Amino acid sequence: MRFRGKAVNWLIGALSVFVFRSLFKTLRLRFHTAETTNPYAIEGDDRFIYCVWHDQLLIPIFGGKHRHTAALVSLNQDGGFVVAGLRSAGILPVRGSSSRGGAQAMRQLIREAEGKHIVITPDGPRGPRRELSPGVIFLASHSGRAIVPTAFSCERGWRFGVGWTNLLVPKPFSKVHLLTGEPIHIPRDADLRNEVTRVAAAMLAMNDRGDGLATRTPSSTSDATEKTF
């Protein structure tokens, strides 16, 4: 029975990856990334914690080729097929929590994701939607890794209700914008509440910019880089 469950999860994950990869081949991707925080780049030795809202997660998963990416999958989440899908997309899934277990759990997470960026949905797995939890701040302060705020938008897309959130799925042949900001360093002795406010403000600013890009005319998006990573 356990083998059958793993096989079913693998099949669902592989089929999902095939469908979304086929969709993303039709899209026009525009990258608006800080010089050192492109998650798909080959060069660079720094490894970051990428903060991604739950409803935007599909775009960064399939927006480029993942060469050194790990994603935190909650222990509370029934994520068997999620784990299988991430593996099929070239992403290392790490089961754990960004808010429980203290320094020992943080060291384990960093060890499992050694040499890779860590992607975290700071409003998951239970929400509220786009409300940043202190777990990502705790992880950054204890790991020494900087947080990179992100935003992902598209000119035309669908919204599908998934639990407490609504997943953004770009429509075929639409233009998609992928944004990353400057790294935010969190001191080890930082006040968690103040840092939550600071990172949440950066995420809000990035999303405002992403929403603005999605509604601008083609001639006004010349600052973007159209490239397949």
Question: Order of helices and strands, N to C?
Answer: HEEHEHEHEHEEEEH
What is the molecular shape? globular
Number of helices: 6
Structural class, from helix and strand content?
Answer: alpha/beta
- The averaged pLDDT comes out at 85
Low-confidence segments, given as residue ranges, are: none
Residues in helices, as a percent range: 25-40%
Q: Give the tally of structural domains.
A: 1
Radius of gyration: 17 Å
Annotation, overall tally of beta strands: 9
What's the arrangement of strands in the largest beta sheet? 1-9-6-2-5-3-4
Q: Major sheet, described briefly?
A: 7 strands, mixed
Taking the alpha carbons of the first and last residues, their distance comes to 39 Å
User: What's the multimeric state?
Assistant: single chain
Strand content: 15-25%
Care to describe what's here?
- The chain is of the alpha/beta class.
- The chain has one domain.
- It has helices spanning 2-24, 58-62, 80-88, 102-112, 135-143, 192-214, and strands at residues 28-33, 49-51, 69-74, 92-96, 117-120, 147-154, 157-162, 165-170, 175-180.
- Strands 1-9-6-2-5-3-4 form a seven-stranded mixed β-sheet, with helices on both faces. Strands 7-8 form a two-stranded antiparallel sheet.
- α1 packs across α3 (80-88).
- The relative contact order is 0.20.
Summarize the structure.
The chain has 229 residues and is an alpha/beta fold.
Key phrases:
229 residues; alpha/beta; seven-stranded mixed β-sheet
Could you outline the blueprint of secondary structure elements for this entry?
Elements: H1 2-24, E1 28-33, E2 49-51, H2 58-62, E3 69-74, H3 80-88, E4 92-96, H4 102-112, E5 117-120, H5 135-143, E6 147-154, E7 157-162, E8 165-170, E9 175-180, H6 192-214
Parallel strand pairs: 1-9, 2-5, 2-6, 3-4, 3-5
Antiparallel strand pairs: 6-9, 7-8
Helix pairs in contact: 1-3
